[in-house]
Amino acid sequence: MNEPEIKERVAAFLGEHDPAGDRLEFLRARFDAGLAWVWFPEGLGGLGASRELQQVVDRELAHTPQITSGVQGIGLGMAAPTILAFGTEEQRRRFLRPLWTGEEIWCQLFSEPGAGSDLATLATRAVRDGDEWVVDGQKVWTSGAHHSRWGILVARTDPDVPKHRGLTYFVCDMHAPGVEVRPLRQITGEAEFNEVFLTGVRLPDDLRLGAVGDGWRVAQTTLMNERVAIGGAASVRRGGGMLGAVLDTWREQPELRTHDLHQRLLALWVEAEVTRLSGARLREQLVAGHPGPEGSGMKLSFARLNQALSGLDVEMRRDLGYDDWAFRRSETVDFYGRGPGYRYLRAKGNSIEGGTSEILRNIISERVLGLPAEPRVDKDVPWKDLPR
Amino acid sequence: MTLLYSEVEEELRAAVRGLLADRCPPAAVLRRIESEPDGRGSASPVYDLDLWKTLAGEIGVAGLLIPEEHGGAGASASEVAVVLEELGRAVAPVPFLTSSVMATLALLPTGDALLGELAEGRRTAALAVSFAASPYRPGRGASVRLDGGRLSGSVTGVAGADVADVLLVPVDGDLYEVTGGGVVVAPSLDLTRPVATVTFEAAQARRVGACDLAEVLLSSAGLLASEQLGVAEWCLDTTLAHVKERHQFARPIGSFQAVKHRLADLWLDVVRARAAARSAVADGSAVSVAVAQAWNAAVAVHAAEEALQLHGGIGMTWEHPVHLYLKRAKSTEIALGTPGDHREALASLVDVPGPE
Q1: If I label B217, which of A88, A203, A252, B14 is the partner at 20 to 30 A Cα–Cα?
Q2: Which positions ≥6 away from A245 have C-beta within 8 Å?
Q3: Judged by CB atoms within 8 Å, which residues 217-246 of B form the interface with A?
């Protein structure tokens, strides 16, 4: 399929479906026409086309009802690629359509109080009981759990083998009895994430994603996509993203400028630009069919830049206030919204969420640069015997 | 516009890299900086003129920028950039940047017959401009004036002058060819590309044509970013190899996070330097050049400094080549504008004005 063919499809679709009609009906029809994510297979919202053609579709449909990428972020960026890669045909058909239209929101039940960077050491147990699994444990940093219908869950199904081998991946029914979601207030004042308590939660076996004991491999797919999703938020426009917010104020309020800020801003401008350029180069490599290892670094650069720019923004404005400390549950994750104080505080999370910058440096140095791993004392020890 | 390398560029790279691996390994460069003048002229003994002959004549790098009608290959800046990456990787002591890039760029608009000789590598030229000059201050270090068709004055910090057969001197918007200039090489920070003071005392000069020196220096600066990328790459690769081999505390030192995290960060800097270098030659705009220079000059220096530190004591020795790269990196940080000069230029280019 090429660009003219795709455009033809879009035109035909618009001929049959009125964008001014019911929003949800329009989105469902768009999914059924294969114009949701064109690189997905036919029948699952796609056309089995090249991923690059999505831009064409998005452009052609820019003035029609849109999905809400913020609150749907985890579903679109993490759950969907994992379901596509590991789900049964039935699971793909059940979950992908309402996930894409936004009728069902997803969250990610990975981290635990005792398992962060060392995710594989997690302790939430899933015990088989006939055709069901009984899940007990606690998850944390669960963004959007409060409006989620489903969660992607990694749980321990075999404590007698080393940590990476005893995990299984599930889709968790967030409406099931025993699922309790409590907001966790963040340094910004609001709660976009939660802690989730799972007590005797019964999940039918057909909510298992991938083989029993294969959860670590399934989770890798999710995590890889998460980093691409967060790093991919890096601006594609020169002078955009977090830099854009700073530049607007800089240009509009010359009285705020100092020589020191000017030097630092220019240095950050250059860093943002070279980061943008390597993102552009990465996309070119993807189109050419030669994805490079550069993607591993995008989130690292993105976090550093966001933090430096948002910090400079607060300092530049000399504003000692803060827009609003009210404890509320966020509708969505937004890095660039609200005031400069919020942006500064929220950006602190960029180097923690989705793999800390330290873990990302480990990944780059071991997988890209081929440096030896640090010695691991827990590699061959059954999980139940690990010190904790 | 693409930021990727073409197949032709990769073939050119392979040819240059193969030749340099064979004829110009770091040990050979180290030997050259030790050697005495060989009596074959005034060129510093560091220059490998046999290697230059092969590069210029057989691989044909000297004529890359020169159009076919003047005897060159009519290639683009992208191909020149790939050659510079490889020459940077090898800190190769050949006058490619100074003759085939800087002098050639100055000569190109004139269409002068000298282009044909440069293209074949029969003659080598140098632009009598301080290497510390920039597109924003092209006259830095120069005090040459024209008096009755003769040139007088001096230019400090000229790179490649001692290996040049011809000096091209820009004066007041015109380019002059001089064959009899006084070239005095002083001890230079960069051992593999020493600079000289060039002095003219009523030297006979031939006017070659008009010369937009700022433009020449801008294009040269954009290409220099690729040489800096090559320098940084060698430093990263060599350091990676070292920390995988070197054992302390019964482990390769590259397994310690204190070491590997620094290298992960350095890799990310180099990844972005590649994108910046490609962008500078792909569109050649003043913004792209300033971005590439502001970033790559600093990355090359940082890479060489990290290489030295992570090699430990051996990195401080004369016998290990890392110092050649540090000296090249630090010198090219100054060459054709410092990172600060380029950032300052960006202030007006991209509308980030300073305090009023």
Answers
A1: B14
A2: A309, A310, A313, A336, A340, A343
A3: 240, 243-244
